[in-house]
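Handout, page 2. Input:
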Amino acid sequence: MEPGNLADIAVQIMSGLATGAGTSVGTAAGEDVVRLVRDRLGGSEEGRAALARLGEEPQQLRTLLTDEIAGNAGFARQLEVAVLPTVKAGGNAHVNTLTVHGSKVSGTINIGPLTIHKTRGSYIVLAIAAVAVALLLVLGSIGTVNIINNFNGGSGGESKSVQDGSSTPEERWKFDKGMTPTVVDGVAYFDSMDKHLHAVDATTGKERWKFGTGGFLPSSSDTDGWGSPPTVAAGVVYSTSVDGNLYAVDAASGKRRWAFDASGPLMQPPTVADGLVYISTVAGILYAVDTVTGNARWHFDTGSGEATAPTVAGGVVYVGNGNLYARDAATGAKRWTFDADGALVSSAQVVEGVVYFGSTDDTLYARDAASGDSRWAFKAGDEVQAPPAVVNGIAYFGSVDGKLYAVDTANAEERWNLTVDGGVTADGGLFSSPVVGNDTVYAASVHGLYAASTANGRERWRYATDHAFLSPVAANGMLYALGADPSKGIDSSTLYALKL
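Output:
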């Protein structure tokens, strides 16, 4: 969530409690927000003054809090976790007037005093926006609200469209609060907003087991969140949690093997290679943990906020932050570092000695995996926030500009691009990696799921509901995707299983 947006919501919560509206928004959760903010800002004279004048000059507190959130990723994550249940509690409030427009917005979205900027996390923010509106109404901040929305034209239900005679997918099952799965040997393993790791039959959705933790399990990466799967290796499921633990769970029984305490919320999925499991923290620490004992072998501090999910290939682990770092996978020693013009919010993909990754400078980069030397750079129409799927010499990837691209990995020549519904001017955008199979590339956007020909980019079908989609996974003739209902918030996440 953008620092300014998070600060706005936190200040609104604090104002509500101060004026007696706390019972409507969840007093206990609201007090957690107050405690976090007071502990962070109360140590300075300026902070104490801003807290004391909250009722008279809330903007002063917003400004200080925005700066603190922007400069401290660990505090930002703690505050975001505290805000989520508070915003959810506001969902039962009565909304006097709710107007949904099909208006087009390219840069920001304004909801009363809350401005949502079009960035990596803005569409997840949209998913909680309607609930946040109810919260703001309870706090007496706004009376009439216009939500700018173009999710499936604002209509509910689902719609299917076929462009070239291909059959549309058939929904087999869905799982409330489920996230994107990893599918192994007919079992789908996925994290959940219900504070459990689940194992279900991949075909029927019937639950095999579930494992509870001390916090919800978003295991999020390039999409800010909310969708990357756990990792399964050698009969063990590895999953991260907001409670600060990396869990190793027996894949067959759901019994805990061990847990590693990273001393802070974990929001990125783990990667396993050669007896080590790699995780990155909200504070930018990369850990290598022994898969047998659960003890840390080494760690590396990227030094500048939350790092991306680690990728391991050829004895090297790659992790992004402001830079892309290549470290020796066994020892953590430096191999090379690359500094892009923008922030690296995309994890890396390594194929045949080339590392591919996106950046907020609107570029997909291809660099030599061993040396870090440039192979090429492809400029998209907007930010590239997830790594590509590289198949048969073509890199398929999405951009915030609302386009799905196919680029030749030999020379960066664009083969084709497909604009999904509306594109960036109608709050479209592709925020997660596509998946390729059967001469088809499958992509998820805030408007639905899309299937296109790998040869020419011609749309084969689309599957649209009132959910925004992220992170598709294809396995055994099925397509799995995370959806979230923008009218109910991220806590409404649903895992869809579709038969192709």
